[in-house]
Amino acid sequence: MDEIADDEILLRHIPGGTLWQAPGPRITSANFRLRHDQNETGISVTRAKITTPQRLLEMVGASLEQGSRVGFVRAGDARQLGLCVVPRPVGHDAGHAEIQSGQARLDDQACRKKLAMLFHFLPDQP
Questions:
Q1: Which of 43, 44, 51, 102 could make an S-S bridge to 95, C-beta 3.0–4.6 Å?
Q2: How does DSSP assign the chain, residue by residue?
Q3: How many beta carbons lie within 10 A of that of residue 67, not counting itself?
Q4: Which residues, including other chains, have CB under 8 Å from residue 9's CB and lie 6 or more apart?
Q5: Domain boundaries in the chain?
């Protein structure tokens, strides 16, 4: 399993709706809340060099027409917050990875807010 370079771009599905997308538009911290009831160990992302934004939307069953967008961040930027970025390939997505707690904790609202501020939306595709 190859390491994820700091300059690698990570993609995340951002659902439509005001809980997930705030005016601006900007990505809200709610997108980075761990679901402990589902035993999540990190925030699911995919590696842009392996999985395209369109494929990501297909895998999660979402579309731009439904208001879904794709957010992106550089792996090194997430690491600078004190988070870990590790590859976690799964059968349907060889590019799957996780942003995990490290020195900074995803259970901390301030950390999730900083992470949300690092993520940006990809331009909408026709």
A1: 51
A2: -PPPPTT-EEEEEE-SSTTTEETTTEE-GGGG---GGGT--SEEEEETTTS-HHHHHHHHT--GGGT-EEEEEEHHHHHHTT-EEEE--BTTBTTEEEEE-SSS-TTSHHHHHHHHHH-EEPPP--
A3: 13
A4: 47, 48, 49, 72, 73, 74, 75
A5: 9-121
- Cβ neighbour number for residue 123 with a 10 Å cutoff: 8
pLDDT of res. 101: 94
pLDDT tens for 6-34 read: 999 999 999 998 889 998 889 999 999 99
Distance CA 115, CA 65 (A): 26
Q: Quick one: pLDDT at residue 125? A: 53
Query: What type of residue is 101?
Result: S
Joined tokens for residue 1: 């399993």
